[in-house]
Amino acid sequence: MRQFVFATIVALLAAAPSTAALEKGVRAPDFATTGSLGGKEFKLQLKQQLKRGPVVLYFFPKAFTEGCTLESRAFSQAMPEFKKAGAQVIGMSSDDLATLKRFSKEECRDAFPVASATPTIVKAYDVTLKAKPELTKRTSYVIDRSGRIVMVHDDMKWSEHVTKSLAAVRALKR
User: Which of 10, 70, 98, 144 is surrounded by the fewest CB atoms within 10 Å?
Assistant: First the structure.
């Protein structure tokens, strides 16, 4: 069933190009939401997270689908490198909190939080999946400590999100 859902999403996306409205250099919209790290619920506010360093904010369509699982595992494996570069990773999805709790434990492997992308957040970051508005596009933003977006990668293929985000975070340290 998961493969069917994922294949359907990919097929729908192939018909229309994906673009992110938020451009490099603009201020990232602040937000507050609920998230999960290692299956434990917590409140998350972007402004507070940025006090600790740059943030990789990546939106993914649906927990436990093939691409989202592979992407989350790749981010979890790369967490030592993100931490070394001083950055945090936060996954965002429109999934319900109970699903995100399970996903944070099973697929993110307790390495980073995933949080609820509310309709307000989805709209602010322009990540609505046009073909299935209840889902988000796969979009990664790297946000520097000042709250400016320094990198946007908007591609439904999961494979380059980690490497591009990590390169952008490393460039901030130079």
Answer: 98
Contact 48, 120 (CB under 8 A): no
> What residues are paired with 90 via a beta bridge?
57
Distance CA 59, CA 158 (A): 11
**Integer CA distances (angstroms), 71 to 8, 18, 74, 107, in order:** 18, 18, 5, 9
Q: Which residues contact 77 (CB under 8 A, 6 or more apart)?
A: none
The pLDDT tens digits of the residues spanning 19-69 come to 556 999 999 999 999 999 999 999 999 999 999 999 999 999 999 999 999
pTM score, whole prediction: 0.87
CA distance 162 to 118: 23
- Distance CA(137)–CA(132), nearest Å, equals 9
Cβ atoms within 10 A of the Cβ of 72, count? Answer: 28
Q: Where are the alpha helices (DSSP H) in the chain?
A: 2-14, 46-50, 66-84, 97-106, 119-124, 161-173
- Domains, the chain, ranges and CATH? 2-173 (3.40.30.10)
Radius of gyration of the chain (CA): 15
pLDDT in tens, 128-167: 999 999 999 999 999 999 999 999 999 999 999 999 999 9
